[in-house]
Amino acid sequence: MKHFLTVNDIESLPDWVDEAITLKQNPYQFEDLGKHKTVCLLFFNNSLRTRLSTQKAAMNLGMEVMIMNFGNEGWILEYQDGAIMDQGTSEHIKEAAQVVSQYCDIVAIRAFPDLKDKAKDEAEEVLNGFAKYASVPVVNMESSTGHPLQALADAITLAEHNKKSRPKVVLSWAPHPKALPHAVANSFTQMMKLQDAEFIITHPKGYELNPNITKGCQIEYDQDKALKDADFVYVKNWSNYNDYGKVLNQDLNWTMTQQKLGQAKFMHCLPVRRNVVVEDAVLDGNQSLVINQAQNRTFSAQIVLKKILESL
Ligand code: CP
Q1: Rounded to 5 degrees, what angle do the CA atoms 96, 137, 10 make?
Q2: 196 shares a domain with 168
Q3: How many domains is the chain built from?
Q4: Binding site: residue ranges?
Q5: Is 279's C-beta closer than 6 angstroms to any atom of ligand 1?
């Protein structure tokens, strides 16, 4: 595998999920695979789970790990070809990506959107810039439009807790005071399209995600109707996609409550704002899978790093 940039880079979702669940029983089974190999984790944005779980995954495989908070500590990068760099940028992605590639065998990138310019965000200039100019494989640790490591962890969690041949899974929008990206919802949707499940997305009218991603998915604007008899409810805020990056709705009627959840399992990628996105009773109750999802981040990263190491 050259790069892991989107859910589409998962060669076989069921096989990778099975392999991850097996690996979880014996995380050090391949501890020699990464000997004398280095992964470099570049963070342009904050993280808790992605940073620590990817580091842990690499360590389980015997890799060395280098981490840089590029957003605070790196030079400001230029991404335009032919740019006259007489303003704020100090280093071109062409040099930066090639230089980083000399120090490691895999480079992993976290780079969020600025949610101001849809075309610019969808061009994924940081992730795709590294993929274009790096001479080593690139892993997406959440980009402007996708968070495939999270989606793979979510697929592992679903497999571990599902008791039905065709579960009902609902992706439910939630209110949030800040403008958040679409990456988690996009990748979860892409992942669910690979599952044998009844999948429904529910959100207020006007909060449609990228139609290229939701194409073929059932969308229900009535949250109560969508949640009826659900087995799993994945709650996530995203900012408006059409009026790009705006927060046009903070309706707390969309907050997930124990009453709305019913008997379903609750999922969220974390971090989560308590009593805005979801009420305490849900997070503190035994139907919540959020800690399991976070645990599975290690094994989604470990499967991806393992696949790449095996292909080097
Ligand atoms: N879910 C997730 O990616 O968490 P972090 O932003 O803390 O890495």
Answers
A1: 140
A2: yes
A3: 2
A4: 47-50, 75, 110, 142, 147-150, 176, 236, 269-270, 273, 297
A5: no
Ligand 1 in contact with 55 (CB < 6 A)?
no
Residue 83: the pLDDT is 98
* Residue 300: both structure tokens together: 């989604």
Q: What is the pLDDT of residues 20-52, one digit of tens each?
A: 999 999 999 999 999 999 999 999 999 999 999
The percentage of the chain sitting over the pLDDT mark of 70, rounded to a whole number, equals 100
Do residues 109 and 184 both lie within one domain? no
Residues across the chain = 312
Q: Answer whether residue 95 is part of any domain.
A: yes
Residue 120 sits in which domain range? Answer: 7-146+296-311
Cα 271 to the center of its chain, rounded Å: 12
Is 1 among the domain residues? Answer: no
Binding residues for carbamoyl phosphate: 47-50, 75, 110, 147-150, 269-270, 297
Distance CA 246, CA 257 (A): 25
CB 93 within 8 A of CB 108: no
pLDDT in tens, 111-161: 999 999 999 999 999 999 999 999 999 999 999 999 999 999 999 999 999
Does the beta carbon of 269 lie inside 6 Å of ligand 1? yes
Of all protein residues, the one whose alpha carbon is nearest to atom 3 of ligand 1 is 50
For ligand 1, say whether the CB of 142 is within 6 Å of any of its atoms.
yes
Residue 125 Cβ contacting ligand 1 at under 6 Å: no
pTM, to two decimals: 0.98
For residue 228, the domain's CATH number is: 3.40.50.1370
Residue 292: pLDDT band by 50, 70, 90 thresholds?
very high
The residue assigned the tokens 């959100």 is 203
Residues 164, 235 within the same domain: yes
Rounded to the nearest 10 degrees, what angle do helices 93-103 and 125-133 cross at? 60
Handedness of CA 43, 45, 301, 189 (dihedral sign): negative
Does residue 275 sit in the same domain as residue 289? yes
Q: Determine phi and psi for 172, rounding to 5 degrees.
A: -115, 120
